[in-house]
């Protein structure tokens, strides 16, 4: 690889695609965003992905750069080894051989990855976990997912489905999760679960707040229109001492601590990096969570608990790392 | 390595040491058992380990074999990279640099490993998981621990404490575990927990069996003096339709299914191998457990659930594999 080489990187989500040209040194040279518009069906989404990737490669060449590789990351179950998007509810993919389609169209060596594992890879190698050999990256947004990164590589599992921290049992008598099972961590501690639970408890009161709290433009989750009070606002109200907000927030923090303690018992990492919307609650999350996690660890070593450093560019940076990694192993 | 080379292998437990000479082809050439007698203190235990290892090496030479390497595995927290037995309650070890002590005494390249991880390694490479690339080995006896083996190597964690499946939360309102936290899997589904729970429910009937109630906290399994009804007997009584036994067994199976579902969500393995005393319950365990696990898996792929194939030699075989592996990487 030479100095003028860049990776074309796409982080495809249910709503939008974050796209970038990223240098071999990790420098972000150029960024773009495009709507995914998943409702159009998987074929149309694939067409958009390929067109956007081609446009980025063209843009690189126009700027005198050489697009050396392409990295695409998507949510759901991703078989990195075969380059297939196995199952992705958000994007509407089911067994899409995206790596082959993209490399055929662009003529570039292409890597297909999982969005959270790619984000974890970037945080572990370039972000908040960069001094640790064993990192667990946990993304808490509409859902909860994790990436276990050891020695700069994220474990994928045999079917590409490893790291589903949102779907571990923490409350056998808890609410039913989107996956159909009761008591999953995601059903209690995701940003959308926190917002929903607060809405349920405050009943009509939540509806009354809605007018005044929508001015920051954020919603409870990308797909939720049910209540206008976001998880971040619940955190703020909890910090201000509001009773119901405090209760919902405490329940979420305790469930999250249970989930992280389980992960630590199994993975034994040095650092846990928290990303996604909920992590933006800052000390309102990290202080009580650190205490609750410490309470749960007996013989296990306590991991560092730190906020993600790369923001919502982590997935794109990870896609670029995956793209560039494959050049090194050729 | 040549055909006459053997590994000297020791699997050190709280009660006894399983010892063997194992050929480079995995053939067990010779076995011995010795008491650990951990009550004598760590120095005496180390002395015994070294003397036994030396005796085995001498025995190999007397038989015309060449002891090429030494592998020792112990329970607890083991730092394989540094060769230190960090913490082992059963054996009484705390930061014992066993690899260095052994290699100095015997003059052989020495590997120190963790007993369950070594057992998992052996099952994954030579036993019930030998056709799978991603294996979770779960040992269920007095406690519960697991080894996650990918591509023939067991993940250790940063401090050597990975795989503590017994200490994940499954029942927040459940019994207090030996580790001090409520609701750990081990407190409900280990062989000792099953025996204890049955004893509690059957009340005086169980108490009458136990003339020596030496409740040292560590001895509630098959070797317990607290109750004469073992987990295997509870399984048999459950199969015969006895009501309390059925209840205790069902609770254990369901907790175990919850624990395995959590592990599968995080690891996404192809095969789960169950070993240890409880796995000897056979179809009485595997049939209901397979059904309960299937009920809990929604989007994740169902792993194969199979009994361990190597019996109680797995730890020793794993110790030999660790010993021989280090010769290959030299």
Automatic annotation (TrEMBL), chains A, B:
One of its GO terms (molecular function) is kinase activity. Keywords: Kinase, Transferase. Belongs to the ROK (NagC/XylR) family. This is Sugar kinase. It comes from Micromonospora sonchi. The keyword GTP-binding does not apply. InterPro entries: ATPase_NBD, ROK. The lineage of its organism: Bacteria, Bacillati, Actinomycetota, Actinomycetes, Micromonosporales. The keyword Kinase applies.
């Amino acid at each position: 690889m030479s100095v003028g080489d860049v990776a074309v990187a796409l982080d495809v989500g249910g709503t939008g695609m974050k796209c970038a040209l990223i240098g071999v040194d990790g420098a972000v040279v150029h960024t773009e965003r495009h709507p995914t518009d998943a409702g159009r069906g998987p074929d149309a989404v694939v067409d958009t992905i390929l067109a956007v990737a081609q446009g980025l490669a063209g843009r690189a060449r126009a700027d005198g750069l050489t697009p050396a590789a392409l990295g695409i990351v998507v949510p759901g179950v991703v078989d990195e080894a075969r380059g297939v998007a196995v199952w992705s509810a958000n994007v509407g993919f089911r067994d899409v051989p995206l790596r082959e389609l993209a490399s055929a169209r662009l003529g570039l060596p292409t890597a297909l990855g999982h969005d959270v594992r790619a984000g974890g890879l970037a945080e572990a190698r370039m972000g908040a976990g960069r001094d640790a050999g064993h990192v667990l990256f946990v993304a808490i947004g509409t859902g909860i997912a994790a990436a276990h990164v050891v020695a700069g590589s994220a474990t994928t599992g045999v079917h590409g489905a490893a790291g589903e921290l949102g779907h571990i049992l923490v409350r056998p008598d808890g609410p039913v999760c989107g996956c159909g099972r009761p008591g999953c961590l995601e059903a209690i501690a995701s940003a959308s679960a926190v917002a929903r639970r607060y809405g349920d408890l405050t009943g009509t009161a939540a509806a009354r707040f809605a007018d005044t709290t929508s001015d920051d433009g954020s919603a409870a989750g990308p797909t939720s229109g049910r209540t206008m009070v976001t998880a971040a606002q619940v955190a703020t109200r909890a910090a201000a001492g509001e009773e119901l907000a405090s209760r919902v927030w405490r329940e979420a923090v305790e469930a999250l601590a249970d989930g992280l303690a389980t992960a630590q018992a199994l993975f034994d990492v040095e650092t846990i990096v928290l990303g996604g919307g909920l992590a933006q609650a800052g000390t309102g999350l990290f202080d009580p969570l650190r205490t609750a996690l410490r309470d749960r660890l007996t013989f296990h070593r306590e991991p560092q608990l730190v906020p993600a450093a790369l923001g919502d560019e982590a997935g794109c940076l990870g896609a670029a790392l995956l793209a560039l990694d494959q050049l090194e192993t050729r």
